[in-house]
Amino acid sequence: MRLPLLFFLLFLLVILPSFLYLNYSVIQTREEAITLIPEIDNNVVKGPVVMPQLKNSTIKAELGQSSWKLLHTMMARFPERPTQDEKEALRSFIYLFSRLYPCGECAAEFQAILAKHPPQVSSREAASQWACAVHNIVNQRLQKEIFDCGKIAEKYKCGC
């Protein structure tokens, strides 16, 4: 009977406080890290493509479909009246996405499109319409059906 009690006391006095301290220190470190994030250099955001060519056409097609779903859903959930910080976060994400996209040749094409059609981030509607227009530029190049951008909000309805 004394052995289980001893283990319970050991747990309460030694293990539990250590566990709580470790978890608290991780949270504290994370919070500190968030406040210490440096400004992102514009050269990092708008730098060259990082990824190599993606030769597998099946993977490339799946990646494209999934990526467009992500981008359109993100735009559909973007704030209607974003703050300046939210606008910059989305703009930076789009440019970083174009650098880090796993298909190097697709990323280069996306960067060329961004040079002519920079992200529109003033509102949810502007971001959604921009993404639809950019997607249609890609669809046209790939000889795919052009989507009616007037229906984009309904297709990616998010309940926002």
Question: What is the topological layout?
Answer:
Layout: H1 2-35, H2 42-45, H3 57-77, H4 84-100, H5 104-116, H6 124-141, H7 152-155
Helix pairs in contact: 3-6, 4-5
Describe this structure in words.
With 160 residues, the chain is mainly α. The protein folds into 2 domains: 1-37; 42-155, Four Helix Bundle (Hemerythrin (Met), subunit A) (Up-down Bundle), CATH 1.20.120. The chain is built from 7 helices and no strands. The protein has helices at 2-35, 42-45, 57-77, 84-100, 104-116, 124-141, 152-155. Helix 4 crosses helix 5. GO terms for molecular function: flavin adenine dinucleotide binding; flavin-dependent sulfhydryl oxidase activity.
Give the structural class: mainly alpha
CATH architecture of the largest domain: Up-down Bundle
C-alpha Rg (nearest Å): 23 Å
Distance between the termini: 57 Å
Q: And the CATH topology of the largest domain? A: Four Helix Bundle (Hemerythrin (Met), subunit A)
**Largest sheet at a glance?**
none
For this structure, what is the CATH homologous superfamily of the largest domain?
ERV/ALR sulfhydryl oxidase domain
User: Low-confidence stretches at least 5 residues in length (pLDDT < 50)?
Assistant: 19-27
Mean of residue pLDDT? 84
What is the name of the CATH class of the largest domain? Mainly Alpha
Assembly level: single chain
- Helix tally equals 7
Q: What pattern of helices and strands is seen along the backbone?
A: HHHHHHH
Q: Provide the domain count.
A: 2
Q: Which bin fits the share of residues in helices?
A: 55-70%
The total count of strands amounts to 0
Shape: globular
Q: How much strand content do the residues show?
A: under 5%
